[in-house]
């Protein structure tokens, strides 16, 4: 079993870096997600006892007093940091500038969906899956 300091990549592409004991996350360690987010935590027998999640854009998740995109303030984090755009140039995602979506396609979170071919490709236009 894994023991000591190490790195482990899960089948989803998420990577763990940190302390391992008896094959489990145990001690200080962090999960690095493919989308750029990270979760730093103190682990005990594979379960986090305390931790902090940071989104890819640097925003730290807070359990209390969360003011990001709540019912009263629907702005994206980049709009909170940089201000709102003029009328007619609204942001549709947190990305600024937004991704360029190929004509007739839809952004589905991990790539683009083309309804004519019924194929989803990643953001570098590599095949992901059939829809």
UniProtKB/TrEMBL annotation:
Cellular component, GO annotation: motile cilium
Alphabetical list of SUPFAM superfamilies matching this protein: Histone H3 K4-specific methyltransferase SET7/9 N-terminal domain
Alphabetical keyword list: Cell projection, Cilium, Flagellum, Repeat
Gene3D superfamilies to which the protein is assigned, alphabetical: Histone H3 K4-specific methyltransferase SET7/9 N-terminal domain
Pfam families: MORN (PF02493)
Cell location: Cell projection, Cilium, Flagellum
InterPro entries according to UniProt: MORN (IPR003409), Morn5 (IPR042814)
Main subcellular location: other
PANTHER family associated with the record: MORN REPEAT-CONTAINING PROTEIN 5
Protein name: MORN repeat-containing protein 5
């Amino acid at each position: 079993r894994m023991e000591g300091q190490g790195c482990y990549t899960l089948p989803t592409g998420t990577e763990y870096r940190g302390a391992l004991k008896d094959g489990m996350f145990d001690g200080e360690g962090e999960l690095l997600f493919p989308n750029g987010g990270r979760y730093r935590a103190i682990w005990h027998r594979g379960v986090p006892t305390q931790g902090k999640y940071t989104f890819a854009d640097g925003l730290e998740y807070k359990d209390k007093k969360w003011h990001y995109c709540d019912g009263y303030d629907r702005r994206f984090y980049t709009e909170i940091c940089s201000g709102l755009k003029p009328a007619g140039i609204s942001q549709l995602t947190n990305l600024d500038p937004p991704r360029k979506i190929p004509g007739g396609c839809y952004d589905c979170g991990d790539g683009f969906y083309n309804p004519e071919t019924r194929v989803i490709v990643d953001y570098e236009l590599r095949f992901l899956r059939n829809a």
